[in-house]
Amino acid sequence: MININVSKHPLVAHYLTRLRDNKTDIVSFKSCLERISYLMAAEVYSELKTENKTIFTPLKKAKGQKINTKVVILPILRAGLGLTEGFRNLYPNASISHIGLYRDEESLKPIKYYFKFPHIKDKKNLKVIVLDPMIATGGSIIFTIEYLLNMNIIDINIVSLLCAPEGLAAIEKRFGSSDKKLIKIFTCFIDDKLNDKGYILPGLGDAGDRLFGT
User: Which of 130, 184, 189, 201 has the most neighbouring CB atoms within 10 Å?
Assistant: First the structure.
């Protein structure tokens, strides 16, 4: 089974409501999305592995912890960029990767036009965090997960604002039968369904268009 974590944070619910509102302007939309990114980053980063570290305070020696997980943040262009700030600022040691996908309006299938990833030989202790505000049909996420699995990356975390049940079912069908992968989905809400054009209902419209004013 794919692990799905739906946030119960009241601030997430508050800012998500503002994002859904068609009266929310571009500036406010961007601001709310950035605030949610910090809240979601805190949830995802709570699962990072640590190791012991001895330090010296101004008074005496003390034991502490430091992160020993390699982290790569992978926003799906372009809307995924809106979720990047919180993940980047809370843990600046994380590397930033990018994958460019767009959805064919007729077939609804993803088409890749760009991919850039840091050179990391040892992937045993690597966590990749994929950022995509909307999981609709699941096609973009499935494509991205397959791409990462082909790179021998198994600890994959998906972060989205909204998920459609159809998209989650497609991801579960494709990847849920194997116990060799650590695929987790972190989302703010699971919506009702997709319409006949593949958009999430009630949704919030096109996240990229509302974020960038296009």
Answer: 130
Q: For the chain, what is the radius of gyration of the CA atoms? A: 18
Residue 156 has pLDDT above 90, yes or no: yes
Q: DSSP secondary-structure letter at 80?
A: G
Q: Which amino acid is at 173?
A: K
Nearest to 127 by CA among 51, 48, 185, 65: 48
The two three-digit tokens of residue 174, written as one number: 């494709």
What gap in Å lies between CA 192 and CA 203, rounded to an integer? 9
CATH code, domain with 175:
3.40.50.2020
Domain range for 120: 3-212
At residue 157, the pLDDT reads 96
186: DSSP letter: E
What's 9's DSSP letter? -
- Our count of domains for the chain comes to 1
| Residue corresponding to tokens 């979601």 | 40
Query: How do beta strands 134-135 and 155-163 pair?
Result: parallel
**Would you say the pTM of this structure is higher than 0.90?**
yes
